[in-house]
Write a structure and sequence with these properties.
This protein is mainly alpha-helical. Helices cover about 40% and strands about 5% of the residues. α2 crosses α3.
């Protein structure tokens, strides 16, 4: 719940990594757990999990697939280079 609450506070068109989200949620060593929590997000329209990317700047995962994640980021004016 802390992860999703922290993610919900992330501003429009801002990105964060799984590790940075873990740190902001108070569990700096829990990047993998953050990935699982984000992956189970029951409200992706309200809690924008598409704004979470991998630490290396790559797209990372997304339940609806990478192209859907790219489209949502494009809507916000965020461009992630293709792998």
């Amino acid at each position: 719940m802390r992860v999703l609450t922290t993610l919900h506070a992330l501003a429009y068109a801002r990105l964060t990594s799984y590790g940075d989200l873990a740190l902001a949620a108070g569990s700096p060593r829990a990047a993998r757990a953050v990935g699982q929590a984000v992956g189970r997000n029951p409200l992706p329209v309200i809690i924008a999990c598409h704004r979470v990317i991998a630490a290396d700047g790559s797209l990372g995962g997304f339940g609806l697939g990478p192209e859907a994640k790219r489209r949502l980021l494009d809507i916000e004016g965020i461009s992630i280079p293709r792998d």
